[in-house]
Amino acid sequence: MNTIITDAIKNFYFVGQPIRHLKNEQIIEFELLLRNNIVSGFPKDEYAWMTKSETIHAKFLKHIVQEVNRILVDNPEIHFSLNLDQQEIEYETTFEIMKNISQENRSRLILEITEIPTLRRYGQYGETINVLAFKRLKKLGYRLALDDLTTGNNSLGNLEITIQYLDRLKISYRHLEKMMTPDEIVLQIHLLQSIVGRHDMDLVVEGVETESVSDNLQTLGVSLQQRFLFKTNACPTDCKKHVERNKRDQNDDHFRIF
């Protein structure tokens, strides 16, 4: 079993999707997105297997943190964000492993807590989200974001009880489009801008697919935007240095291979 897990872990790697700071283009930031050489896109089933138990997850996260450390060291001028599911922050080993990133590099890494709810709790708490885990990650010196606000377990109610530990909110424009009229989207953006303004946070809007959407968001004061509209240099140095498993990503200028 250990050999199977080790071999599976070696298949994972990261690509980065740019988060554009339109008010300050000198700030370069990427969200690190998990990939592997078995499937295209996010390896949902493989990731689920890696997070189903604390023992397997600890092996997986050690590899992830080693990769993130390498990326941070190799790219000292770039900021990054990394997803953690709510199941992952149930595990005690997660907090120990996250200490392996230096304090200096933690300042360039935002941990995005995704909307996927826990399948199994390892501690006792009355809330619908593990507030103590947010507090502990914040105490370690990490900046925290609540990903995909208003979906899954990242409700406005859970925002209220975790907001003191947050530095960023993220919301999907495509999600808003499915539920709201254009006028309602404007009201929602104004609401979120008011919340982040009062609590000294950032607001990132994902799912920006057209220039007109980007321009409208800028008019509303949203200068942090993410998605396929924004292209990047897939291989900032030499694609030959990347192993064969990354080959399919080398011609996709929406991502950067790390």
Automatic annotation (TrEMBL):
InterPro entries (alphabetical): Cyclic-di-GMP_PDE-like (IPR050706), EAL_dom (IPR001633), EAL_sf (IPR035919)
Record-linked PROSITE patterns: EAL
SUPFAM superfamilies: EAL domain-like (SSF141868)
Domain EAL as annotated: residue spans: 1-247
Alphabetized PANTHER family for the sequence: CYCLIC DI-GMP PHOSPHODIESTERASE PDED-RELATED (PTHR33121:SF79), CYCLIC DI-GMP PHOSPHODIESTERASE PDEF (PTHR33121)
Protein name: EAL domain-containing protein
Organism: Leuconostoc falkenbergense
